[in-house]
Design a protein that fits this description.
195 residues, protein transport
Length: 195
């Protein structure tokens, strides 16, 4: 028995001559190769540190802006409370406010927009910083485990607290490492087998 026909050896095919999946013809080979090439490009781009960092920063910006918008919507004045407050102020002799409803609404949206921008920038900075550090640590260690999250969280927390002094840097690093480690443990948790 020759080594080429041995059942324990993996078959070796030249590039472009691999067997096609079931249902494909030779005319589909070029299209299939092009699809596989674009899949390799997309997966390579999603694994690169700059793309991960940019996507995390954009997602953090959107999340921070949404949180601010949501909290602003919950903290908006109720019209019935405003009317009651206006009547109480009028009975106490306090003059009527000078802003009309349209101007008050405009001010509300302007303040909300500024707060959304500020909060979004903060969340985006944290997301991009943590993701970039984690990607670098993962590339350096060549492993994907819980220690990447702990190391990255420690570095990110320390960098975020750098303007408050060394004690705050240590505390921020420990707190951020604990938080990121807990989140990573939760996502790495095996699903329960019982239905």
């Amino acid at each position: 028995m020759s080594g080429v026909n041995a059942p324990w050896l993996a078959p070796i095919y030249l590039p472009g001559q691999e067997p096609l999946p079931e249902g494909y013809t030779e005319e589909d080979r070029a299209n299939l190769a092009q699809v596989q090439m674009w899949q390799r490009y997309a997966s390579g781009a999603m694994e690169s540190c700059p793309v991960k960092c940019t996507l995390s920063g954009a997602a953090g910006f959107g999340l921070g802006a949404f949180f601010t918008l949501f909290s602003a919507a919950l903290s908006a004045d109720d019209p019935t409370r405003r009317t009651t407050a206006y009547l109480q102020a009028q009975a106490a002799g306090i003059p009527e406010p000078k802003l009309s409803t349209a101007l008050q609404t405009k001010e509300f949206f302007k303040d909300t927009g500024k707060n959304m921008w500020r909060s979004g920038k903060g969340f985006g900075k944290v997301g991009a910083l943590y993701s970039g550090i984690e990607c670098c640590v993962e590339g350096y260690r060549a492993k994907n485990d819980i220690y990447n999250s702990l190391i990255s969280g420690c570095f990110a927390g320390s960098i975020l607290a750098r303007s408050s002094g060394p004690k705050a840097m240590i505390g921020g690093g420990i707190a951020f490492a604990a938080f990121s480690g807990a989140i990573d443990l939760y996502f790495r948790k095996e699903p329960a087998d019982d239905p």
